Amino acid sequence: MHEAQTTPDAATGDDESSAPESARRPGQGRRRGARSGRRLALDLTAIGLLSVLALGALGVGGVAVYRTLYSPAAFVERYLSLLSSGSAADALRLPGVAMDSAELAAAELPSTTSEVLLRRAALAPLSEVSVIGERVRGDVTEITVTYLANGHRGRTQFDVEQDGWIGVAPAWRFAHSPLSAIDLTVRGATRFSVNGFELDTRQVAPEGVDADPLVPVSMLVFSPGAYSISVDTPTAQTPGVAVLSDAPQKSVPVDLQTEPTPEFIEVVQDRVDEFLASCATQQVLQPTGCPFGYFVRNRVEGAPQWSIAQNPEIEVVPDGAQWAIPSTRAVAHIDVDIRSIYDGRLNEVSEDVEFFLTGKITILPDGTASIQVSADQG
Fold first, then answer.
1. pLDDT tens, residue by residue, 206-245
2. In Å, what is the CA distance from 214 to each residue of 117, 188, 267?
3. CB distance 78 to 143 below 8 Å
4. What is the pTM of this model?
5. Which of 159, 292, 335, 361 could form a disulfide with 305 if both were Cys (CB 3.0 to 4.6 A apart)?
6. Domain-terminating residue out of 211, 240, 258
Protein backbone atom coordinates (compact mmCIF):
# COMPACT_ATOMS: atom_id res chain seq x y z
CA MET A 1 0.00 0.00 0.00
CA HIS A 2 1.20 3.40 -0.81
CA GLU A 3 0.73 6.26 1.65
CA ALA A 4 -0.29 9.59 0.29
CA GLN A 5 2.43 12.16 0.41
CA THR A 6 1.70 15.77 1.23
CA THR A 7 3.66 18.78 0.29
CA PRO A 8 3.95 22.00 2.22
CA ASP A 9 1.72 23.67 -0.35
CA ALA A 10 -0.90 21.02 0.06
CA ALA A 11 -0.79 21.28 3.82
CA THR A 12 -1.12 25.03 3.99
CA GLY A 13 -2.88 25.84 0.76
CA ASP A 14 -2.79 29.33 -0.68
CA ASP A 15 -5.26 31.07 1.84
CA GLU A 16 -4.22 34.70 2.26
CA SER A 17 -5.57 34.82 5.81
CA SER A 18 -2.69 32.83 7.05
CA ALA A 19 -0.10 34.89 5.22
CA PRO A 20 1.74 37.85 6.82
CA GLU A 21 0.11 41.30 6.36
CA SER A 22 2.97 42.52 4.25
CA ALA A 23 2.65 39.47 2.07
CA ARG A 24 -1.13 39.87 1.52
CA ARG A 25 -1.30 43.35 -0.18
CA PRO A 26 1.79 45.29 -1.07
CA GLY A 27 1.54 48.96 0.23
CA GLN A 28 -1.61 48.39 2.31
CA GLY A 29 0.19 48.82 5.69
CA ARG A 30 1.64 52.14 4.65
CA ARG A 31 -1.80 53.52 3.73
CA ARG A 32 -3.29 52.49 7.08
CA GLY A 33 -0.41 54.07 8.97
CA ALA A 34 -0.94 57.29 7.12
CA ARG A 35 -4.62 57.28 7.95
CA SER A 36 -3.85 56.71 11.66
CA GLY A 37 -1.42 59.60 11.63
CA ARG A 38 -4.00 61.92 10.09
CA ARG A 39 -6.58 60.93 12.69
CA LEU A 40 -4.09 61.64 15.48
CA ALA A 41 -3.32 65.04 13.99
CA LEU A 42 -7.02 65.85 13.72
CA ASP A 43 -7.56 64.77 17.33
CA LEU A 44 -4.70 66.92 18.52
CA THR A 45 -6.00 69.87 16.49
CA ALA A 46 -9.46 69.44 17.97
CA ILE A 47 -8.02 69.27 21.46
CA GLY A 48 -6.07 72.44 20.74
CA LEU A 49 -9.15 74.26 19.47
CA LEU A 50 -11.17 73.14 22.48
CA SER A 51 -8.41 74.38 24.75
CA VAL A 52 -8.38 77.74 23.00
CA LEU A 53 -12.16 77.95 23.23
CA ALA A 54 -12.05 77.00 26.90
CA LEU A 55 -9.42 79.61 27.62
CA GLY A 56 -11.47 82.15 25.67
CA ALA A 57 -14.55 81.26 27.66
CA LEU A 58 -12.60 81.60 30.87
CA GLY A 59 -11.34 84.99 29.70
CA VAL A 60 -14.84 86.19 28.81
CA GLY A 61 -16.14 84.85 32.12
CA GLY A 62 -13.36 86.59 33.99
CA VAL A 63 -14.13 89.89 32.29
CA ALA A 64 -17.82 89.45 33.13
CA VAL A 65 -17.04 88.69 36.77
CA TYR A 66 -14.71 91.68 36.97
CA ARG A 67 -17.29 93.95 35.38
CA THR A 68 -20.06 92.69 37.65
CA LEU A 69 -18.22 92.50 40.96
CA TYR A 70 -14.83 94.20 40.95
CA SER A 71 -14.87 97.11 38.48
CA PRO A 72 -15.20 100.81 39.41
CA ALA A 73 -18.67 100.79 37.84
CA ALA A 74 -19.66 97.80 39.99
CA PHE A 75 -18.54 99.71 43.10
CA VAL A 76 -20.76 102.67 42.18
CA GLU A 77 -23.66 100.35 41.33
CA ARG A 78 -23.28 98.73 44.76
CA TYR A 79 -23.59 102.17 46.40
CA LEU A 80 -26.68 103.02 44.37
CA SER A 81 -28.21 99.61 45.05
CA LEU A 82 -27.89 100.24 48.79
CA LEU A 83 -29.62 103.59 48.42
CA SER A 84 -32.34 101.97 46.31
CA SER A 85 -33.03 99.40 49.04
CA GLY A 86 -32.98 102.01 51.81
CA SER A 87 -29.77 100.63 53.36
CA ALA A 88 -28.48 104.06 54.35
CA ALA A 89 -26.17 102.78 57.12
CA ASP A 90 -24.46 100.30 54.77
CA ALA A 91 -24.09 102.94 52.05
CA LEU A 92 -22.46 105.29 54.56
CA ARG A 93 -19.93 102.58 55.46
CA LEU A 94 -18.64 102.20 51.90
CA PRO A 95 -15.07 103.52 51.53
CA GLY A 96 -14.98 107.24 50.80
CA VAL A 97 -18.65 108.03 51.57
CA ALA A 98 -18.48 109.45 55.12
CA MET A 99 -16.92 112.91 55.50
CA ASP A 100 -14.74 114.07 58.36
CA SER A 101 -14.19 117.69 59.41
CA ALA A 102 -11.25 118.15 57.02
CA GLU A 103 -13.30 116.92 54.06
CA LEU A 104 -16.20 119.17 55.05
CA ALA A 105 -13.85 122.13 55.13
CA ALA A 106 -12.36 121.18 51.75
CA ALA A 107 -15.88 121.04 50.30
CA GLU A 108 -16.65 124.44 51.90
CA LEU A 109 -19.39 122.91 54.05
CA PRO A 110 -19.91 123.96 57.70
CA SER A 111 -18.08 121.81 60.23
CA THR A 112 -21.39 121.61 62.15
CA THR A 113 -23.25 120.07 59.19
CA SER A 114 -25.67 117.51 60.61
CA GLU A 115 -25.88 113.84 59.56
CA VAL A 116 -29.51 113.60 60.68
CA LEU A 117 -30.79 112.88 57.14
CA LEU A 118 -28.32 110.06 56.44
CA ARG A 119 -30.86 107.41 57.43
CA ARG A 120 -33.44 105.10 55.88
CA ALA A 121 -36.41 107.20 57.04
CA ALA A 122 -35.26 110.19 54.98
CA LEU A 123 -34.55 108.31 51.72
CA ALA A 124 -36.85 108.48 48.70
CA PRO A 125 -37.15 105.74 46.03
CA LEU A 126 -34.23 105.41 43.59
CA SER A 127 -34.69 103.25 40.49
CA GLU A 128 -33.79 102.71 36.82
CA VAL A 129 -30.08 103.10 37.59
CA SER A 130 -27.85 102.80 34.52
CA VAL A 131 -24.11 103.34 34.04
CA ILE A 132 -23.71 105.35 30.83
CA GLY A 133 -20.08 106.38 30.99
CA GLU A 134 -16.68 105.32 32.34
CA ARG A 135 -13.49 107.33 31.78
CA VAL A 136 -10.05 106.98 33.32
CA ARG A 137 -8.21 110.18 34.17
CA GLY A 138 -4.91 109.41 35.86
CA ASP A 139 -5.61 107.52 39.10
CA VAL A 140 -9.31 108.45 39.06
CA THR A 141 -12.07 106.70 37.13
CA GLU A 142 -15.12 108.83 36.35
CA ILE A 143 -18.38 106.87 36.43
CA THR A 144 -21.49 108.56 35.03
CA VAL A 145 -24.94 107.18 35.85
CA THR A 146 -28.56 108.05 35.14
CA TYR A 147 -31.47 107.22 37.41
CA LEU A 148 -35.01 108.00 38.50
CA ALA A 149 -35.16 109.59 41.96
CA ASN A 150 -38.71 109.69 43.29
CA GLY A 151 -40.01 110.47 39.81
CA HIS A 152 -37.23 112.94 38.92
CA ARG A 153 -34.75 111.94 36.22
CA GLY A 154 -31.15 112.73 37.06
CA ARG A 155 -27.55 112.25 36.00
CA THR A 156 -24.54 112.19 38.33
CA GLN A 157 -20.79 111.67 37.92
CA PHE A 158 -18.75 109.90 40.62
CA ASP A 159 -14.96 109.87 41.04
CA VAL A 160 -13.57 106.45 42.05
CA GLU A 161 -10.00 105.41 42.85
CA GLN A 162 -8.32 102.11 43.70
CA ASP A 163 -8.14 101.21 47.38
CA GLY A 164 -5.82 98.20 47.55
CA TRP A 165 -6.72 94.65 46.56
CA ILE A 166 -9.17 91.90 47.43
CA GLY A 167 -7.04 88.86 46.67
CA VAL A 168 -6.15 89.31 43.00
CA ALA A 169 -9.01 91.77 42.34
CA PRO A 170 -8.77 95.54 42.89
CA ALA A 171 -10.77 97.26 45.66
CA TRP A 172 -12.26 100.73 45.17
CA ARG A 173 -13.30 103.82 47.08
CA PHE A 174 -14.84 107.19 46.26
CA ALA A 175 -12.07 109.68 45.52
CA HIS A 176 -14.55 112.40 46.53
CA SER A 177 -17.47 111.68 48.85
CA PRO A 178 -20.83 111.44 47.07
CA LEU A 179 -22.51 113.29 49.95
CA SER A 180 -23.87 116.81 49.50
CA ALA A 181 -25.78 119.20 51.77
CA ILE A 182 -29.06 121.08 52.09
CA ASP A 183 -28.91 124.51 53.78
CA LEU A 184 -32.45 125.03 55.03
CA THR A 185 -34.16 128.16 56.32
CA VAL A 186 -37.74 127.74 57.58
CA ARG A 187 -39.75 130.93 58.10
CA GLY A 188 -42.74 130.81 60.40
CA ALA A 189 -42.04 127.41 61.95
CA THR A 190 -39.32 125.33 63.56
CA ARG A 191 -40.80 121.94 62.75
CA PHE A 192 -40.50 120.50 59.25
CA SER A 193 -40.33 117.14 57.49
CA VAL A 194 -38.03 115.67 54.83
CA ASN A 195 -39.59 112.84 52.84
CA GLY A 196 -41.99 112.39 55.73
CA PHE A 197 -39.24 112.28 58.38
CA GLU A 198 -40.09 114.95 60.97
CA LEU A 199 -37.46 117.27 62.43
CA ASP A 200 -37.11 120.52 64.35
CA THR A 201 -34.55 123.14 63.39
CA ARG A 202 -33.61 123.40 67.07
CA GLN A 203 -32.59 119.72 66.98
CA VAL A 204 -30.31 120.31 64.01
CA ALA A 205 -28.81 123.71 64.83
CA PRO A 206 -25.66 123.59 67.01
CA GLU A 207 -27.11 126.32 69.28
CA GLY A 208 -30.22 124.25 70.05
CA VAL A 209 -33.19 126.23 71.39
CA ASP A 210 -31.11 129.41 71.31
CA ALA A 211 -30.55 129.16 67.55
CA ASP A 212 -31.46 132.12 65.37
CA PRO A 213 -34.43 130.85 63.32
CA LEU A 214 -33.27 132.81 60.27
CA VAL A 215 -29.82 131.18 60.21
CA PRO A 216 -29.87 128.19 57.83
CA VAL A 217 -29.32 124.70 59.23
CA SER A 218 -26.98 122.54 57.17
CA MET A 219 -27.73 118.82 56.71
CA LEU A 220 -25.78 116.18 54.78
CA VAL A 221 -27.73 114.14 52.23
CA PHE A 222 -26.91 111.26 49.91
CA SER A 223 -26.29 112.07 46.28
CA PRO A 224 -28.12 111.17 44.18
CA GLY A 225 -31.38 111.62 46.02
CA ALA A 226 -34.71 113.42 45.93
CA TYR A 227 -35.78 115.26 49.08
CA SER A 228 -39.26 116.71 49.57
CA ILE A 229 -39.26 119.35 52.33
CA SER A 230 -42.54 120.57 53.79
CA VAL A 231 -44.16 122.04 56.90
CA ASP A 232 -47.45 120.84 58.32
CA THR A 233 -48.05 122.05 61.87
CA PRO A 234 -51.11 123.44 63.67
CA THR A 235 -49.87 126.98 62.96
CA ALA A 236 -48.01 126.77 59.64
CA GLN A 237 -48.04 124.87 56.39
CA THR A 238 -46.40 124.74 52.97
CA PRO A 239 -47.15 122.77 49.82
CA GLY A 240 -43.55 121.58 50.01
CA VAL A 241 -40.50 121.95 47.82
CA ALA A 242 -38.60 119.19 46.00
CA VAL A 243 -34.80 119.16 46.02
CA LEU A 244 -32.78 116.87 43.71
CA SER A 245 -29.30 116.25 45.09
CA ASP A 246 -27.39 115.22 41.97
CA ALA A 247 -23.89 116.66 42.45
CA PRO A 248 -21.52 115.35 45.14
CA GLN A 249 -20.24 117.83 47.74
CA LYS A 250 -22.51 120.65 46.63
CA SER A 251 -24.64 122.78 48.94
CA VAL A 252 -28.26 123.38 47.95
CA PRO A 253 -29.88 126.45 49.64
CA VAL A 254 -33.59 126.12 50.44
CA ASP A 255 -35.58 129.05 51.86
CA LEU A 256 -39.03 127.84 52.89
CA GLN A 257 -41.70 130.45 53.59
CA THR A 258 -44.68 128.96 55.39
CA GLU A 259 -48.27 130.18 55.42
CA PRO A 260 -50.55 130.34 58.47
CA THR A 261 -53.14 127.59 58.72
CA PRO A 262 -56.85 128.53 58.81
CA GLU A 263 -57.00 127.06 62.32
CA PHE A 264 -54.16 129.31 63.45
CA ILE A 265 -55.81 132.42 62.01
CA GLU A 266 -59.05 131.47 63.76
CA VAL A 267 -57.22 131.10 67.08
CA VAL A 268 -55.57 134.51 66.66
CA GLN A 269 -58.94 136.03 65.81
CA ASP A 270 -60.48 134.58 68.96
CA ARG A 271 -57.62 135.79 71.14
CA VAL A 272 -57.75 139.33 69.74
CA ASP A 273 -61.53 139.43 70.20
CA GLU A 274 -61.10 138.29 73.81
CA PHE A 275 -58.42 140.89 74.37
CA LEU A 276 -60.60 143.72 73.05
CA ALA A 277 -63.55 142.48 75.10
CA SER A 278 -61.40 142.63 78.23
CA CYS A 279 -60.35 146.17 77.28
CA ALA A 280 -64.01 147.12 77.09
CA THR A 281 -64.52 146.17 80.73
CA GLN A 282 -62.29 149.02 81.87
CA GLN A 283 -64.50 151.94 82.89
CA VAL A 284 -62.04 154.66 81.98
CA LEU A 285 -61.64 156.91 78.98
CA GLN A 286 -58.25 155.41 78.11
CA PRO A 287 -58.25 151.64 78.83
CA THR A 288 -54.76 150.61 79.91
CA GLY A 289 -52.74 148.70 77.31
CA CYS A 290 -55.57 148.86 74.79
CA PRO A 291 -55.59 150.18 71.22
CA PHE A 292 -58.57 152.55 71.66
CA GLY A 293 -59.64 155.45 73.91
CA TYR A 294 -61.68 158.66 74.09
CA PHE A 295 -60.45 162.20 74.66
CA VAL A 296 -62.52 165.00 76.30
CA ARG A 297 -61.77 168.50 77.55
CA ASN A 298 -64.62 168.57 80.07
CA ARG A 299 -65.44 166.70 83.24
CA VAL A 300 -66.71 163.10 83.12
CA GLU A 301 -69.77 162.29 85.20
CA GLY A 302 -69.88 158.65 86.30
CA ALA A 303 -68.00 155.74 84.71
CA PRO A 304 -67.64 155.39 80.95
CA GLN A 305 -69.11 152.22 79.45
CA TRP A 306 -67.28 150.59 76.57
CA SER A 307 -68.34 147.90 74.12
CA ILE A 308 -66.90 146.56 70.86
CA ALA A 309 -69.16 147.51 67.98
CA GLN A 310 -67.07 145.85 65.27
CA ASN A 311 -64.25 143.39 65.80
CA PRO A 312 -61.30 143.48 63.41
CA GLU A 313 -61.05 140.93 60.60
CA ILE A 314 -57.68 139.42 61.48
CA GLU A 315 -55.04 138.51 58.93
CA VAL A 316 -51.78 136.78 59.81
CA VAL A 317 -48.77 137.48 57.62
CA PRO A 318 -45.12 136.30 57.70
CA ASP A 319 -42.76 138.48 59.69
CA GLY A 320 -39.22 137.13 59.42
CA ALA A 321 -39.16 133.93 61.39
CA GLN A 322 -42.46 134.73 63.09
CA TRP A 323 -45.88 136.24 62.29
CA ALA A 324 -47.58 139.61 62.39
CA ILE A 325 -51.05 141.13 62.30
CA PRO A 326 -51.09 143.93 59.73
CA SER A 327 -52.95 147.18 60.38
CA THR A 328 -56.61 146.29 60.85
CA ARG A 329 -59.67 148.47 61.42
CA ALA A 330 -62.10 147.96 64.32
CA VAL A 331 -64.80 150.00 66.06
CA ALA A 332 -65.46 150.47 69.78
CA HIS A 333 -68.47 152.22 71.30
CA ILE A 334 -68.53 154.49 74.35
CA ASP A 335 -71.41 155.71 76.51
CA VAL A 336 -70.42 158.45 78.93
CA ASP A 337 -71.88 161.56 80.59
CA ILE A 338 -69.76 164.67 80.23
CA ARG A 339 -70.41 167.97 82.01
CA SER A 340 -69.26 171.15 80.38
CA ILE A 341 -66.79 173.14 82.43
CA TYR A 342 -67.89 176.30 80.63
CA ASP A 343 -71.62 176.29 81.33
CA GLY A 344 -72.17 173.19 83.51
CA ARG A 345 -74.42 171.56 80.98
CA LEU A 346 -74.51 167.69 81.01
CA ASN A 347 -74.11 165.92 77.70
CA GLU A 348 -74.92 162.21 77.27
CA VAL A 349 -72.34 160.91 74.78
CA SER A 350 -72.99 157.68 72.83
CA GLU A 351 -70.41 157.43 70.10
CA ASP A 352 -68.56 154.92 67.91
CA VAL A 353 -64.81 155.17 68.16
CA GLU A 354 -62.86 153.89 65.14
CA PHE A 355 -59.36 152.58 65.76
CA PHE A 356 -56.63 150.53 64.05
CA LEU A 357 -54.51 147.84 65.60
CA THR A 358 -51.45 145.78 64.70
CA GLY A 359 -49.89 142.78 66.37
CA LYS A 360 -46.81 140.60 66.79
CA ILE A 361 -47.13 136.84 67.12
CA THR A 362 -44.28 134.76 68.49
CA ILE A 363 -44.29 130.96 68.48
CA LEU A 364 -42.76 129.89 71.80
CA PRO A 365 -40.50 126.84 72.26
CA ASP A 366 -43.39 124.82 73.71
CA GLY A 367 -45.45 125.44 70.56
CA THR A 368 -47.82 128.03 72.03
CA ALA A 369 -48.25 131.50 70.55
CA SER A 370 -47.63 134.81 72.28
CA ILE A 371 -49.81 137.61 70.76
CA GLN A 372 -49.05 141.27 71.41
CA VAL A 373 -51.66 143.75 70.15
CA SER A 374 -51.10 147.47 70.00
CA ALA A 375 -52.62 150.57 68.42
CA ASP A 376 -51.43 151.35 64.93
CA GLN A 377 -49.83 154.74 65.26
CA GLY A 378 -49.45 155.16 61.52
1. 999 889 989 999 999 999 999 999 999 999 999 889 999 9
2. 20, 10, 25
3. no
4. 0.77
5. 335
6. 258
